[in-house]
Amino acid sequence: MSTLQNSPKTLFEKVWQQHIVAEPAGEPSIIYIDLHLVHEVTSPQAFDGLRMAGRKLRRPDRTVATVDHNVPTSSIEDRLHILDQIASKQIEALRKNCADFGVELFDVQSPDQGIVHIIGPELGLTKPGMTIVCGDSHTSTHGAFGALAFGIGTSEVEHVMATQTLPQDKPKTFRINVEGALSPGVTAKDIVLHIIGEIGTAGATGYVVEYAGSAIRTLSMEGRMTVCNMSIEAGARAGMIAADATTFAYLKGRRFSPADTAWDESVTHWSQLVTDAGAIFDRELTLNAADITPTVSWGTSPGMVTGVKSTVPMADPAASEADQKAFERALEYMGLHSGEPIEEIKIDRVFLGSCTNARIEDLRAAASVVRGYHVATTVRAMVVPGSQSVKAQAEKEGLDKIFTEAGFDWREPGCSMCLGMNPDILAPGERCASTSNRNFEGRQGRGGRTHLVSPQMAAAAAITGHFTDIRAWQFKDQIAQKEAK
Ligand SMILES: CC(C)[C@H](C(=O)O)[C@@H](O)C(=O)O
Ligand code: SF4
Fold first, then answer.
1. Per the database record, which ranges form the Aconitase/3-isopropylmalate dehydratase large subunit alpha/beta/alpha domain (predicted)?
2. Do domains 9-284 and 295-474 have the same CATH topology?
3. How far is the CA of 117 from the centre of ligand 2 (A)?
4. 325 FRET partner, CA 20 to 30 A, in 52, 206, 407, 482?
């Protein structure tokens, strides 16, 4: 027993062990849940279930709700009078449920409203070492803080509401090391798109992924959240990054962060939540940061990606018949053909938003590309800040002006065009450079064509009207000067 206790452990194992309530033989472990995040789409039946069973919500103080998926982003007026019947019903239900069960709700008029995975971290609700769940697959975002965070289904939402626990089979562990320095213009989004391109959309199924290595350590919290956010697109149960000085600096002083002596105690505890030297993972992979270039998805799954300087790929004759069919189908749906240079693909729309890339740093990066330019006449572009707080900060910095002067639409926070659940959708056949995380058929509206890119790449595409290598864009003034001589 003592050798087992002293043996080196992974970050995941430490957090898992600290949350085991019970380990019934032959059954999933019962895990304690520290924080339950709630949004309007996956909570109504769960609250109804509690009501029908005559049960209370066990820990309203560990439950927080917001509205994000369904809310229009056009104007405050539109958000207060939602025309869509389903959206309006779900939001009304959430209001009533939160009032009845004593849950704090960040509603459309709250200065803290926003996409659930953006507001958790920015309020300091998300903390290292926690277990965090939400009826939403991109809950993996919170793993950027060294938390064990994963999406759950509606029946599990009800279970957590009633008991503050969850039965869970212990996942396997997978460490992905990204080593070396990223080239200028290459971002966290490119890292994660590249990883999914390498391992495939089922490459991490059954695993909790820990991202490590020098390229990950140098990422900001925003960048780490982008990486962890898309873990689910590789099939992972969760993504995690050990907390460090960057994490502590981000959390210090946030509304729900510990203060005073509790802060110091927390940092001492959090600092221990790292993978011990010699700990063994079920799987390990090391990638070289220098191999990653600005990445663009060309198909209908987040694994169908390539570098911006590349071309739409050829069918792989060695692939299975099913894979070849899926490949052909993706090309047909996307209206592309093999060999087409990525930089020649023209776009109609640009969406800068979502829980992947709508944090302040994303908006700053995009604004720095856009400043002084105008959106191409053939393109409609929009910026949807991830939260009210991101929006307010961006406005304080004048980023909204940079975007609107360039011809972008500046919107109210929400999931928006990340998914077709609100009025922000593509028309059939429209092609969009999007900073979101999913490019499935119809994801942004029926017949819509989604290309996943970083905020910088989306911004450059908005200006030129086609995918453009951001690495060249960064030096555009120098190139122009040389040409003028
Ligand atoms: C609506 C919700 C259940 C869904 C999810 O779980 O991820 C959504 O957020 C998405 O991104 O597709
Ligand atoms: S922004 Fe998109 S991915 Fe994120 S929670 Fe909303 S719909 Fe899901």
1. 13-465
2. yes
3. 8
4. 206
